[in-house]
Design goal:
single chain; 378 residues; alpha/beta; Dihydrodipicolinate Reductase, domain 2; six-stranded mixed β-sheet; 14 strands
Length: 378
C-alpha cells in the first residue's frame, strides 16, 4: 500500500532543542502470544517509545498486559484506535490485519505487519532486519511486512552462505512447535501431554495394535474439534504445517519457498521444504541441505558460522553439544550445529539450526523493523 509520503513521526507536538521526540506505538493483538512477547520486549530494547497503545478484539479488551514495568489494559480496536499513532505493529491474525491495516494507514500510521496478510503482495517490502533493513522503509510505503518466523531463521543462516559460496538450491525439513499456533496450540499440547502421562495402558503405548496410540489419545481427550492440530501432537509428529495445496505441498511450504526467494533476492532459487509439527512448546528447528555454486571447505564453513554475528555454534556431538529447542527458548541468538558435508559432493553443506520462534524470530524482528522506521523518520 502507498499513502501519504514525506510525513515525519512524532505527532505529539514540537520537538524542543536538544530533545528527540518519542514516537507513539500501537501493538495490535497485544494479548496474543506474539503480541504479549512483543510488548514484554519493550523494556529490554534500547529504543525509547512514547505512548504504547495496546489494541485487540472486543473479546480481549480489558485484559491487563505488563508494559515497561506497569500493567496496562488492552483496548478494543475501532475506527479511532490509531489516532495519534506513529507506528502500528500487527501481531494479529491475518483477517484482523486485512480489516484494520487500511484504517491505521488512513490515520497516518506506518504499519509493520507480522500477521502474514501482506507478505504475498510483491509491491510490499518484506524485511528481515539483519539482512535487508535498509529497505524497511522508503517514503513511498506506509506498510512493510515481516515474514514468518521460519523464513527469518532460515534466511539469516542462508544469506551468508549465498554471499560466500553462492546458493543454488535448498532442501529443508522443519521441526516446529505448538506455539506456532499461539496460546491455543500451547494449551492444547499441555493438555495432551498431561492426559498422556495420566493414561498409560501398555497395550496402547507399546503399539501392539495398529492405530492404538492415536485411538488411545482420542479416547481420553474426547472431542478434538477445538484442537488447532489435525492429529494428536503429544507422543507424535505431524508432517503437515498449513493447509494442503496443489501437487502435494502445503500452503506454508509454498509460503516458505516464496518468502525465502524474496528475502534472499534469488528469484528462482529451488527450495524443497517439508514442514513438520513436533511436540515442543517453544523453539523451532530445521535440518538444511544446500547446494552451492562454488566448492565449500568444511573447516571454512564452520569458521564462517563461528564468526557470524548473532550465531552460537553448538557442534560437538560426542559431548552432546547440539542445538535443541531446550537450548534456544528465551535466547536471542540463532544456534547452529551438526555442520557436515557429503564426502562425494564438495559443492554442498548440511547443518542444523534452532531458534526461539516467538521471541527471536518474530517479536524481536517486528520491533527491530519498527525501530528502523522510527529512526529513519526522526
Amino acid at each position: 500500500m502507498r499513502g501519504r509520503a514525506g510525513r515525519g513521526l512524532c505527532r505529539d507536538g514540537p520537538v524542543s532543542s536538544g530533545r528527540h521526540c518519542r514516537p507513539t506505538l500501537a501493538v495490535v493483538g497485544a494479548s496474543g502470544l506474539v503480541g504479549s512477547v512483543t510488548v514484554s520486549l519493550l523494556s529490554v530494547r534500547p529504543f525509547h517509545w512514547g505512548e504504547v497503545r495496546l489494541l485487540g478484539s472486543e473479546r480481549s479488551a480489558g485484559r491487563s498486559v505488563p508494559v515497561r514495568g506497569r500493567r496496562q489494559p488492552v483496548l478494543a480496536i475501532d475506527d479511532n484506535a490509531f489516532d495519534g499513532i506513529d507506528i502500528a505493529i500487527f501481531a494479529s491474525p491475518a483477517d484482523a490485519a486485512e480489516k484494520w491495516i487500511p484504517h491505521a494507514i488512513r490515520a497516518g500510521a506506518k504499519v509493520v505487519d507480522g500477521s502474514g496478510w501482506s507478505v504475498r503482495d510483491p509491491a510490499i517490502p518484506v524485511v528481515v532486519p539483519s539482512l535487508n533493513g535498509d529497505t524497511a522503509f522508503d517514503e513511498a510505503h506506509d506498510l512493510v511486512s515481516v515474514p514468518g518466523g521460519m523464513t527469518s531463521t532460515l534466511s539469516e543462516a542462508l544469506a551468508g552462505i549465498h554471499g560466500q559460496w553462492g546458493l543454488e538450491g535448498v532442501i529443508v525439513s522443519t521441526y516446529e512447535p505448538a506455539s506456532a499456533f499461539g496460546f491455543a496450540g500451547v494449551d492444547r499440547l499441555r493438555e495432551e501431554i498431561h492426559v498422556a502421562g495420566e493414561y498409560q495402558p501398555t497395550e496402547v503405548w507399546a503399539g501392539q495394535r495398529p492405530g492404538a496410540v492415536r485411538a488411545g489419545l482420542a479416547d481420553v481427550l474426547g472431542d478434538s474439534s477445538g484442537s488447532p492440530f489435525v492429529a494428536p501432537l503429544a507422543l507424535n509428529v505431524i508432517p503437515l504445517v498449513g493447509d494442503p495445496a496443489e501437487a502435494g505441498w502445503s500452503t506454508d511450504e509454498q509460503s516458505l519457498r516464496r518468502e525465502l526467494r524474496r528475502v534472499l533476492g534469488i528469484e528462482r532459487l529451488p527450495v524443497v521444504a517439508t514442514r513438520v509439527l513436533v511436540p515442543v512448546i517453544t523453539g523451532h528447528c530445521a535440518s538444511i541441505h544446500v547446494s552451492t555454486a562454488r566448492q565449500v571447505r568444511l573447516d571454512r564453513a564452520k569458521r564462517f558460522f563461528i564468526e557470524a554475528p548473532d550465531i552460537v555454534v553448538l557442534d560437538d556431538p560426542a559431548a552432546g553439544d547440539v542445538p535443541t529447542p531446550a537450548d534456544v527458548a528465551g535466547a536471542d541468538p540463532l544456534f547452529v550445529g551438526r555442520i557436515r558435508q557429503d564426502s562425494n559432493n564438495a559443492s554442498s553443506l548440511d547443518f542444523f539450526v534452532a531458534g526461539d520462534n516467538i521471541r527471536r524470530a518474530t517479536s524481536t524482528g517486528l520491533l527491530k523493523v519498527a525501530e528502523l522506521i522510527a529512526s529513519m523518520q526522526d
